[in-house]
Amino acid sequence: MNNSESFQLPEVKRTPSRFRNPIGKYRLNRTSACVACGKCVEICPYEVHVARRGRVRIENAYRCVGKDCENTCIDVCPEQALSLKRNPDFEVLGDRRWPPDLLAASWHMAEFGQVPEKGLEYRIGASEGGYDKLRIAFRKSKIGSAMVDDDEMDLGVLLNRRGDNAHLARTEVPFYGGGMSYGSVSINTMLSRMKAAAALGTFCCTGEGGYPDELKPYDDHVITQVATGLFGVREETLQRVKIVEFKYAQGAKPGLGGHLLGDKVTPGVARMREAVVGYPLFSPFPFHSVYSVEDHKKHVDWIKAINPKALVSVKVSTPTDVDMVAVGSYYAGAHIIHLDGSYGGTGAAPDIAKKNIAMPIEYALPKVHKFLTEEGVRDKITVIASGGIRTPHDVAKTIALGADGVCTGTADLVALECIRCHNCESGRGCARGIASTDSELMNLIEVEWGTQRILNLFLAWRKELIRILKKLGMKSLKELVGRTDCLVHLDYMKNGSEK
Amino acid sequence: MPSKYVIHTEAVPRRFQPLIQSGIIAWEEGCLKCAVCVKKKCVYGVYDHRGLDARQMVESIDNECMNCLRCVQGCPNELIHKSINPEFMAMGDEHWSPNIIASLWAQADSGKIPVSGAGYPGPFSGPGFDAIWTDMSEIVRPTRDGIHGREYISTAIDLGKTPGHLVFEPESENVGAKNFSPLQLLDIPLPIILKVPGFGAMSEEIFRGWCEAAKRLGTLFSLSAEMSTKMPEEYGPWLLPSLSADPISKGFNKALKALPPGCRMVELCLDDDWHETVKEVMALDRKVLISAKVSMAEGMEEKAQQLVDAGVPIIHLEGDFRGRGFDDPEKFLKDGIRSVHLKLVETGVRDNVTLLASGGISMAEHVPKAIICGADGVFVDFPMLIALECRMCRRCEKGLSCPVDIQDASSEWTAGRVINLTGAWHNQLLEVMGAMGIRDARRLRGEVGRAMFFEQLDRETFESMGTVEEECELE
Fold first, then answer.
1. Which mean pLDDT values do the consecutive 10-residue runs of chain B (475 residues) have?
2. CA angle, B91 then B454 then B441, to 5°
3. What is the Cα–Cα distance from B15 to A403, expressed in whole angstroms?
4. Number of domains in chain A
5. Interface mutation target, options A127, A298, A352, A484, chain B, most CBs of B under 10 Å
6. Does B118 touch chain A (CB under 8 A)?
7. Least packed by Cβ within 10 Å: which of A138, A416, B168, B459?
């Protein structure tokens, strides 16, 4: 993986929804006036209508782009047998950060490996602030100025910039999988993420619930987490990986420890975490051995003593003095500072913490980038950002705000058809089998299907990022780091006009 | 060390079926009644619980649906559909939003902190308190109160004038504060005082429930002086009667005598001509603490200042029921609190007075945020009514019947639900204080360094990203 010359990107394989009725934005109705002339079948580029045994049926309504369609089946129908309306189910999906359009667009990417052409907003959500009000500004004079083959574009991120003895790990794509513990998600979900990470030439983090044996084949792509609960942390697993991540805090619940509700502590989870079946598990906050940067250095030194080749990543959330935390982490010897903004995901957290504590990543990142630059150490440490990064445009904006790369989490789950119902924590866990350890529910996901869905999503992201970079006149992602001049915030825009 | 303050909660079931957000399941024509969805697909057993007859699958409103859409996506003929429940969305208003109401109901049911999966679902920021994020402590600035965690966080606050400093009398063993009597101070174990909401289908029974809740919580219950006299005597010490201008002007002494026995604090609602009245009141030899109400409107800072100068030890800053200024709906309670607090800080009298705030406090996070802005504590009004399943439909204001018959609720049920809600809020306050590394609610007051303000952060971060010097395409 350190030799990108030999790296081969995996291929997109169409991977449709695992449910009988995929949910789309529109519904088409066909009345009995239909004479099965087949004109709709011919004109629709999305295979919405299917002719079979002398009859025409609507089989893929979820792919209909509705009003964005140029030559509509409704217009060509000689009998006016077709009508279009919004799908009421669609409105029930998602929330302000992941509105229905963004979910459906991500499902499209997970199925086809490319961004939707029409009909869905795939670039921003509906939160009306932060990323959703930031725009990438393409200067007319730069557009089309980068004459580079897609294959030659460099989207990789070097993770070790200290030049010490640790692995010279790098990723081929500017993102890796954020921590999701065994217990909060099923082993099938974990494996899907891990296998996709391996195929994409990047990493994926185990989260704080230990290192299940099933992940062993992917050791070189695993980041193992040491969190405040120290669940499942063993010398043997720390020695097996290239990257060890200290989780000081998590964006969704800054200042609070991890939380796994009792119902999700199944025998398998309990064994892995050395805990009791059926009892809720709380990680403390903070690390009770760390009350200063000096204490923090002891932590880093501990890892370096156990596994001298390991890279150390420090995952923190975003208090007002996040810049001090970042610089402190650098001096303590960390290779990666991972900032998790306050709108990040979680398997379970108090609502009050998700909404109110610590700041969104959009504010923290420029602050840290600037501080590290002024300190003269910015090129010695890798900055990874996470906490609400949902789209390839979010990735580009994050890099422009000063990160080297990002962590994904919720996006992976959306690829597996998460609908953001927010019930990951309750009872048997996710009814859709993603964030559940229930033996019946977790088998709703097959690892092969899950892996390909995640791969497809991220291959679509990659393609879109290449398009964005080329449009900016850049040849590699590194050129975009900290380029806030490529961004415009709608509330503060002074010149120019929106497309 | 005093014993730890714990609010004991236990489940108090609702009397009515709740409204939920996506509650309608519509079966379209053509259903073969194969019952695949009904019998097998629902992970939560919703279809079983509601006793639906599988042979009669007609459109029905559902109260338990968890919105996983498995039935919608699994129906063999694509006939089951869900949509947003308009009745749910119609609840309340922009401030008392349907989601806030539903969350308060759930807290009153169980006394538990609302916990959910997946990240924050809401807008990036919002008006009022939603434009504030509280801080957390991490690595370089760990909990400044040491390593005891949240076990020893105190949420108690003082009402009244605290002594400025201690005086040591060289002749005796006494150490005390000059001119200070303990009667001048009242402490409550949490920075929340219950208050009668501005409307609601209330009965005397409900009032007794609120009294009981205040007593068991160890806090006060603010109500009109008239109503306070109708409450059972045992609740006297927990009542905070509010005297309107009229009886005060007819002789404060007389009004005081009419207060319930044991009453420890009283609030004055003053008219424009208040200077003389206050002078009179403060000169009286009395055993109750005096609080004066100041409406959030133009000139409130000066009025608060003058009241403090006149010796009033407690100021109650009141916003409207959505927490806005009475004369300016663009002004939020947080702004009002900050500006009154800062005025009192500037003139050097802030420590001589307790500042309480009310109006529109609708979620647990508003308590620490109001305190960060400069209040010592807050009044909570409508959440006490919503705990009783109120839907904020305001039919009662028009003299129409209450859809959830609040007036028929028992006092015991009322007390249980309100205690649950307050217990959940108290625990959430502890979470936020724990994350900030603050161990005493009294020290959170005015600590704006432990908060981040949207306006400031947004400008600092994005203002420079505003200029586009040549023609651009935006994406």
1. 83 92 74 72 76 53 82 87 89 96 97 94 96 87 54 89 74 65 83 97 97 98 95 96 80 83 93 85 85 96 96 96 95 97 96 95 98 98 98 95 96 98 96 89 94 95 82 88
2. 80
3. 52
4. 2
5. A352
6. yes
7. B168
